[in-house]
């Protein structure tokens, strides 16, 4: 909506409200603004909690017959800026942090819906804030209404989270080991009257990325992997027969088993995971998980029992689980090549001699874990560079000029190369696996001074430990006409890295998800 349109809309709203006030009415005169809406419904999803994420809001405007003209709405809250604020939806505009939103559609029908978001900023005082809603048709107000936006310290959405969870840490864990995880949870206050189920959620990172080097299982009938939001590798266990005992510390009757990958490197925090205990009402259970699928009389049900250790826990309900592996290195390798004095296509092999996997450790899904960087012999010119044979080794890519320039500072830090002529990145490489990068070079004007290639990880293990067991073979020469590489006096490369001991993909806890299908038939 343009500034002129906004001013016209505001002027029309002001004029309509003034006329209404002068007449002593609570709604605009119907005779002057036909057709009036048959139904107007504003849903602000009250109440709002300061600092919570924005909540979806809607305005439905229905007519008995198709209206003619531009249908618009104006919603303004009587409060200070930077308290109640809106997020613009389709056809809507709102100034930053101003408690005002205006929306319009040029082609209204009998049923119309405006969608947007509403939130209370952190620090907004608790209380009720009056709003005024005006619906306009071709700048004429056809409906006005008032109400309140309620701001509260907390809201109950059918999910009760007033538990304190125990943090657990396991260190020096050999690869392939099963770790029994059986944390305690203290119930702080009474469950809501409409509680239907208590739920334990155990996370293990993001699914299908190989990013954590650990898997977990809950093989009981009342437990299920997360088929509702499968990107999160979560195990849910549901307890319909539960105690309501404020002050009691609970524990699963049996542990959830986390299995460390048999080829996981170390020392590495392969599980920056988490768990949570919460309670939900029947509406939330039906919405997010569907109907109970297990037999309540089954002998294979996990139970939630009072813990042998009743010492109360403090803190929030998000329990942290850290599993750190024992030392188990991988061995990245790279081989050099010799260039002829013409256009040459080089196949630069990169491998992993093990015994561990160069495990995927991206900071985010789009970021690689490992990289190859190279400097051509003096006078040689790079024509192209690409990774080949990438099947089974996802995440391989070679940087174009723009990305190389954008990452140059990070790539050049700690290198033995005088410059970076090309660079590629990849997510991981299993023991015994290899791949090659094809570099096409014009060496016609090469002077013979050698170049070099280097391979290493962006990330390190616990306390910055280099997980590569033999850094000496992480560098190799690029020569011309067989000329040898001068002795640099150092058999290894000092690489820049990010300590990955604390690097995690985030604690995976309960996330409300629309039900997809029942767990007994995941293919349905």
Q: What can you see in these coordinates?
A:
The protein is mainly beta and 524 residues long. It is 8% helix and 40% strand. It has helices spanning 3-23, 282-289, 401-412; strands at 39-43, 55-62, 71-77, 84-87, 92-93, 100-105, 111-120, 127-137, 140-151, 159-160, 163-165, 168-173, 178-181, 184-187, 195-206, 214-217, 223-225, 232-239, 249-252, 256-260, 269-281, 304-306, 318-325, 332-334, 337-339, 343-352, 370-375, 381-388, 397-398, 422-426, 434-442, 451-457, 459-460, 475-480, 498-499. The strands form eight sheets. Strands 10, 12, 15, 17, 18, 21 and 23 form a seven-stranded mixed beta sheet that branches. Strand 8 and strand 9 (140-151) form a beta hairpin. The chain is flat and about 85 Å long. The two termini are 45 Å apart. The relative contact order is 0.12.
Q: Indicate the percent of residues in helices.
A: under 10%
Radius of gyration from the alpha-carbon trace, in angstroms: 31 Å
Q: How far is it from the N-terminal to the C-terminal residue, by CA?
A: 45 Å
Structural class: mainly beta
Q: Spans with pLDDT under 50 lasting ≥5 residues?
A: 1-33, 485-524
Let me know the number of strands.
35
**Main sheet: strands, sense, barrel:** 7 strands, mixed
With helices defined by DSSP (H or I, 4 residues minimum), what is the helix count? 3
Can you give the mean pLDDT? 82
Beta-sheet strand percentage? 35-45%
Coarse shape: flat
Protein name: LPXTG cell wall anchor domain-containing protein
Organism: Glycomyces mayteni
Keywords: Cell wall, Membrane, Peptidoglycan-anchor, Secreted, Signal, Transmembrane, Transmembrane helix
């Amino acid at each position: 909506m343009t500034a002129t349109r906004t001013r016209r809309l505001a002027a029309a709203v002001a004029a309509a409200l003034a006329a209404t006030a002068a007449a002593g009415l609570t709604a605009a005169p119907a005779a002057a603004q036909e057709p009036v809406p048959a139904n107007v419904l504003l849903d602000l999803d009250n109440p709002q909690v300061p600092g919570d994420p924005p909540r979806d809001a809607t305005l439905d405007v229905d007519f008995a017959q198709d209206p003619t003209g531009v249908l618009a709405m104006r919603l303004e809250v009587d409060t200070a800026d930077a308290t109640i604020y809106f997020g613009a939806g389709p056809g809507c505009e709102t100034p930053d942090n101003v408690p005002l939103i205006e929306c319009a559609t040029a082609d209204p029908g009998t049923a119309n819906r405006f969608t947007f978001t509403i939130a209370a900023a952190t620090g907004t005082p608790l209380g009720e804030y009056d709003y005024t809603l005006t619906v306009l048709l071709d700048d004429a107000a056809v409906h006005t209404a008032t109400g309140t936006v309620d701001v509260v310290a907390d809201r109950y959405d059918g999910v009760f989270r007033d538990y304190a969870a125990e943090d657990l840490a396991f260190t020096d864990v050999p690869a392939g080991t099963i770790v029994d995880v059986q944390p305690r949870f203290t119930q702080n206050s009474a469950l809501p009257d409409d509680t239907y189920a208590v739920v334990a959620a155990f996370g293990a990172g993001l699914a299908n990325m190989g990013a954590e080097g650990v898997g977990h299982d809950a093989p009981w009938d009342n437990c299920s992997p997360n088929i509702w939001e499968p990107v999160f590798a979560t195990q849910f266990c549901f307890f319909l027969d539960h105690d309501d005992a404020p002050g009691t510390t609970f524990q699963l009757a049996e542990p959830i088993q986390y299995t460390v990958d048999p080829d996981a490197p170390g020392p590495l925090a392969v599980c920056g995971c988490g768990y949570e205990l919460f309670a939900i009402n029947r509406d939330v259970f039906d919405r997010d998980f569907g109907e109970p699928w297990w037999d309540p009389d089954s002998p294979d049900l996990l139970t939630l029992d009072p813990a042998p250790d009743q010492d109360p826990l403090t803190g929030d309900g998000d329990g942290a689980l850290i599993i750190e592996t024992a030392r188990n290195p991988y061995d990245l390798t790279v081989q050099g090549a010799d260039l002829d004095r013409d256009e040459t296509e080089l196949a630069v092999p990169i491998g992993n001699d093990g015994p561990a996997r160069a495990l995927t450790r991206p900071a985010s899904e789009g970021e690689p874990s490992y990289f190859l960087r190279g400097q051509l012999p003096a006078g040689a010119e790079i024509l192209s560079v690409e990774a080949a044979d990438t099947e089974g080794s996802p995440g391989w890519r070679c940087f174009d000029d723009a990305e190389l320039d954008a990452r140059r500072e990070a790539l050049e830090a700690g290198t033995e190369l005088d410059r970076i002529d090309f660079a590629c990145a990849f997510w991981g490489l299993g023991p015994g696996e290899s791949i090659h990068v094809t570099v096409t070079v014009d060496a016609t004007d090469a002077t013979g001074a050698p170049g070099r290639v280097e391979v290493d990880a962006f990330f390190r293990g616990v306390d910055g430990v280099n997980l590569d067991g033999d850094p000496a073979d992480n560098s190799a020469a690029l020569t011309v006409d067989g000329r040898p590489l001068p002795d640099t006096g150092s058999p290894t490369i000092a690489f820049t890295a990010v300590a990955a001991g604390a690097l995690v993909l985030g604690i995976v806890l309960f996330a409300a998800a629309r039900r997809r299908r029942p767990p007994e038939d995941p293919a349905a």
